[in-house]
Protein 1
Amino acid sequence: MLLGGLSVAYAIVHMLPTDLLLNMGSTHGLAMVFSMLLAAIIWNLGTWFFGLPASSSHTLIGAIIGIGLTNALLTGSSVMDALNLREVTKIFSSLIVSPIVGLVIAGGLIFLLRRFWSGTKKRDRIHRIPEDRKKKKGKRKPPFWTRIALIVSAAGVAFSHGANDGQKGIGLVMLVLVGIAPAGFVVNMNASGYEITRTRDAVTNFEHYLQQHPELPQKLITMEPPLPATSTDGTQVTEFHCHPANTFDAIARVKTMLPGNMESYEPLSVSQRSQLRRIMLCISDTSAKLAKLPGVSKEDQNLLKKTAQRYVKHH
């Protein structure tokens, strides 16, 4: 599963509303995760009970879309923004294209085998049942290399299925761990000094880009609704929200928390690690929104998308 990559996990996490990801330690964040898990479990158990074909991947994606829609309705935000249509479109495209590609490849192989291999002695040797094999060869087992080929192909299918099917659970497991045990999982505690430096450099490069294009964040600020009023009675903040107006302050905070010679996240307290994750999510969200603005060049769009993905993947 780990060798298979984490692209599916990152794509699935990107489908979730940013506000809920920011508040994973809150009741709302944990309710989101367990709602997804319970919905998937109930649906899978129901389809298994009635003997219906079902896909856990499709179930999970449907649950995430449902959470995005519900969150948009409860908060009064845009349904289009809540669904993250870019990621939804990419995932639905892959779900549609993958079976077609598999059908074409499998159909082509069957056609070639029937055309050039049907009726040969090797085909007859492979397709004998154990009783026929024992009558002709005196033993029930197929030839050694045929057994090796079956074992290797079965192992390949198992690995590919596990690598693909397991990815979608990684993101959810990490969200649960972030909410329940933030000290060890809210940031990547195994990150090397090189990776931390790359993160800091990415933040600095993003700051330079905003300074070179000051009209873009201003345009984004005018499009975003104002943040809820902050309580002035000293009550501890329990709900966090992103707003592009705070981007430069967020960047300055990251540069303070990640000095140039930092080799590990260990020196940061648990609250600082949680704050760092929230800030990086907000910067990622702002970068992704900037890429969608009209007038942004294709090159800048690719740069901003890569920046947004880098923040999420390393934190």
Protein 2
Amino acid sequence: MVFSNDNKDGMEIDNLFEMIIDLYNALMKTFPDLVVILDLEGNIINISRNIQNFYATKSIEDFIGKNIIDFVVSEDREPFKEDLEKAINQGFLKMVEYNFSGANDSRFIGELSLS
């Protein structure tokens, strides 16, 4: 983070920040994989639009604020919790697969990568 008394630099930083937010929003709208952004407690704070491919009757707003563990099948919940805790402590976790519950009691495999 940069702090400056020079208004010109501040405006450039604001423009850069706006550009980063625009790129982030474009990624969330167009990335072909399902992307879920969590807080440190595992609550969903953002999710890509293609969530509707997995939960046909749900809108994005139906997921915001819910805990990701609610979507992990019961037999994978403990390992998921352990790996989430590990990721928080270590700062990252790469490519671990879990079974998630989908629409109409279906299941799908999701790959978890955290940073």
Protein 3
Amino acid sequence: MSTVATLMDTAVADVELLRSLDANGDDFSIPRDVEFLMPGPSAEKASIVAGFINDYQYGLATADQLGEIHRVLVVVHMPIQQHNISCVSGFMACVSLLYGLEYDGWDALLRSASDANLGWITLEVALRCAPTTTRQAKIQG
């Protein structure tokens, strides 16, 4: 898949997730930890990508393994206004492409002015650049 197609698919998925969060009362301007997930084919690739992200301080990256899947989890403390999250999400998608990983999108805690921690909410998002992986939807009451 081309870089442009990946960025377009990522932008669509990001907007869908933002709409879901907005419908649940999220205040996008409140900073929170945002998790970006990049599954990969090997521990070596995951380690290289985590090292790259940590070396340049793009976020706090850890390489780990879940079953047979190697992955990189990147945490960035930031607001999720569309211009912010679109830039960082697009960057993570490009890093994934450059290093041969998949990009599985992002998760964030729902934040509002009245209750800073309402629970996890994510969309079930299947990006074309990562068709075998999806984000799980869970709202804690």
Protein 4
Amino acid sequence: MNGMSGYPSKKQETGEEHVSFDSSPLLSCICEMDYLPRTFGEKVKFDRETLSRKYILFYCFFQPPRHPFAVLRSCHPISLFKLCTDLYSVRDDFEMVSIVRMSEEHDCEELIKWLAFSAPTYSLVVPAEESHRRNVMCECLDVLYPGSLKCLLVNVEKGIVVHGGLDSMSCLTEHLQKLQKESSLDWLRSSERVFKMLWPVIPEEQENPFPLG
């Protein structure tokens, strides 16, 4: 039985599993947060309606206590990150949410800022102040020990999830590649996103969570 779905329904040949929105703590968590920041500082608010037709990739990592930045850098699945960057160029219904967990005695805020600079452009990062929800989300994915990494792709509309880990990314990658092949490059969308990242418009009352420098 899986914590995401509450009942076993996995299709072994595709790696798929079915889940309802109401039984998914991961989806509930991102709706309950005040905002999720993109890597360039823009703050985005999600609710059930805005998520209803999206593909959400959750990327969850438990940071070991020693040499955190070196370990985090070495454990990034670079090919997955590149694929996600490409998906942002061709789809409006794809989002990646990065979640990092670490021991309380370490500076999680600085690590999350570093993750924001290394994660795929335009992706989302669960902020440092949401420590409780970060822990809940990691526990939902069984990311319980330092060095563990899990990914979960959710097709919210159809209620389908696909799992992936450091040693089992093939099914997840195949699903993402299929999404990419089903899409075509929209130069206007791509250009607008590049301009938005280079010159983000952050309201004065909002502080950029990932300032340069």
